[in-house]
Write a structure and sequence with these properties.
Mean pLDDT: 95
Order of helices and strands: EEEHHEEEEEEHEEHHHEEHHHHHHHHHH
Bound molecules: adenosine monophosphate, magnesium ion
Largest sheet: 6 strands, antiparallel
Radius of gyration: 24 Å
Number of domains: 3
Helix content: 25-40%
Number of strands: 13
Distance between the termini: 46 Å
Length: 540
Amino acid sequence: MKMEGESTALKKNLIEWRFSQYPKYILLPIDENHDQIRSNIKNVVFSEVTPRPLERNIRLVCVSEDALVNILDMDPEIANREEFAEFIAGRKLPYGALPVAHRYGGHQYGLWVGQLGDGRALILGEYVNKLGERWQIQLKGSGQTPYSRVHDGRAVLRSTLREMIASEACHFLGVPTTRSAGLVVSDEAIVRDVYFTGNPRRERAAVLLRLSPCWFRFGSLEILARNGELAVLRQLADFIIKEHFPDILLTDENRFIRLFSEVAHRTLDLVAKWQGLGFTHGLLNTDNMSILGLTLDYGPFGFVDSYDGGFVANCSDGEGRYSLSKQPDVVVWNIGQLANALKPLLTSSQQVHMSHILKSLDTYSKNKILETFLMKVGLKEERWGDEQLIEKLLDMMQKTGADFSSSFRQLAELEPSEMVSEVKLADKWSLKRLSSHASWGCWLDQYRERLEKEAVDASSVGLFEDERRRRMLSVNPVYVPRNWLMHEAIVDAEKDDFQKVRFLLNVLRRPFDVQPEAEARGFSSQPPQWAYALKISCSS
Ligand code: AMP
Ligand code: MG
């Protein structure tokens, strides 16, 4: 008899493809009082909801072949079948589906706002793949749920497309993230006031097929603690441990502390990756903080172009609460909210223990970020003066407006003979800009000396230089999903031309490799002037 997930052949149609007969989430309280929007649902973790299929003409915009093949065991050919687009559009549910919306709360911009929940997303079921991994399959934009509040339950093409591209790109950049498997657009019109200026316009509804081992957020626990639903809180915390943190024993009386510590450290490891790529999430509310330490809910995010620590990706974040350089601090603050949510499950001595962990997080985060930047400049271990070397580099980038990703990449590509300040860096547009800073020459001398120190310890200087380049090229991408690249892809996609989207997705599968076709389109060249004026709204 075959066990779940045992069949090895890739599925070519949806009849062969089925959800796990027993999704684990049925062990948690599910509200069966579906479909009605309600503001104060109690004592449940999910609500059962049927998807509202996209109306009118639907078209498949793109898929992630990697997600199809390596997560869903699907032959990419499946995407050519109409039933596949119908599945994403919520018209056809595969065998074994049990659609649920998740109930959670959250702190938005630092304030507790109570119940939020999946207002337009539905977990359809769980799929156990041939590797034995269990993935929750989710539709985003699939209609109203009890958690929709005043909203329509839909998502527009521009925002789902950005999530599709960036989540897949992050995966290949080595950033822990939820995944996207495919995107469908329809002619169903929805109305959005993109910049909240009183100018609503019609856009088209789209649905994104998202994948994650689970979709729990800090806010999943926060709402239960806030409402005093302590039995469900304990049940959910134990469920998360059992299903997602197998190294923690359910019999361990300190298990919630261990859970907290693990989530906190994973989350800060994630933030260090973000900082190292100039990724600015844009909306770090506690309802957007994954309990698994994944990048979650891509909205008004941005990969910084010209480096600026104060870069704010989201044009609705007037105070810059979620600016690039504030992310580490604001995430520690969010982790503090997770601590508050777990507190009711702890004895008083455990609470003291938790506060010690909390106090250690700033230092942990700072060290992780420094470690990340040392790797980016090709250094393995911190030595005296390294922190200042990095700070100075970022300061010069900020002052000259040099490009973040390209400066690091071009630094990686520098030949030793180019590491002298007099050398003209004509083919390295971003370093050229950086080198206009008065301290560039001095910094370069220090950097070269520092590299030589590392090389003296290596068996051969030549070998070391090769290794430095190899290491730096493997952590400093040539391509990141810059806003202007996604913008161009979106403009065409709005006209049903999906070539640019598909091309971009394909390039971003190998972000560390120079690709001639991408070069020809200027993907690693200086962004066009208009790119610097792009504004990304959280309207989606
Ligand atoms: P976000 O800012 O995208 O993280 O969403 C915050 C909350 O608003 C979540 O509870 C979402 O489900 C909800 N939400 C956002 N847009 C919509 C929409 N169009 N329809 C229903 N709920 C929405
Ligand atoms: Mg969200």
